[in-house]
């Protein structure tokens, strides 16, 4: 499974990337949401893990832009804050609160199972 990871906090990004790769998944990571959107390749990713609060674009804006190219992309929005002002309508995603725990790993496993079942 190929994961797109976007978080503007370098420590969080590196920790999540390490954990994702330890699960056996491929992971491309970006500190800059604008750069991630510009370089996004729809055929490359199965899942996007996107921080909500970032400079330039918030997580929902990133999701909206990449879903324009890949409407069925599975997504996890992560955040240390729980107050969202612009929840997108019609854009399914999983929300997980930071710090991430077992629920994050379980969700990735569920996505992997879903992908295998659809192939």
Question: Any overview of this molecule?
Answer:
The chain is of the alpha/beta class and 119 residues long. It has one domain (2-86): Response regulator (Rossmann fold, 3-Layer(aba) Sandwich). It contains four helices and five strands; from the N terminus they run βαβαβαββα. The protein has helices spanning 10-22, 33-38, 59-67, 102-118; strands spanning 2-6, 26-30, 47-51, 74-79, 94-97. The chain has a five-stranded parallel beta sheet, sandwiched between helices. β1, α1 (10-22) and β2 form a beta-alpha-beta unit. The two termini are 12 Å apart.
In short:
This protein has 119 residues and is of the alpha/beta class.
CATH architecture verdict: 3-Layer(aba) Sandwich
Content of β-strand: 15-25%
Supply the helix-strand structural class: alpha/beta
In the CATH hierarchy, what is the superfamily? Response regulator
How confident is the prediction overall: mean pLDDT?
92
What is the makeup of the main sheet? 5 strands, parallel
Question: CATH topology, anyone?
Answer: Rossmann fold
Whole-Å distance between the termini?
12 Å
CATH class value = Alpha Beta
Count of DSSP E strands?
5
Uncertain spans, ≥5 residues at pLDDT below 50? none
Order of adjacent strands in the largest pleated sheet = 2-1-3-4-5
Number of helices: 4
Structural Rg? 13 Å
The string of secondary-structure elements, in order, is: EHEHEHEEH
When the domains are counted, the total is: 1
Give the overall shape.
globular
- Range of helix content: 25-40%
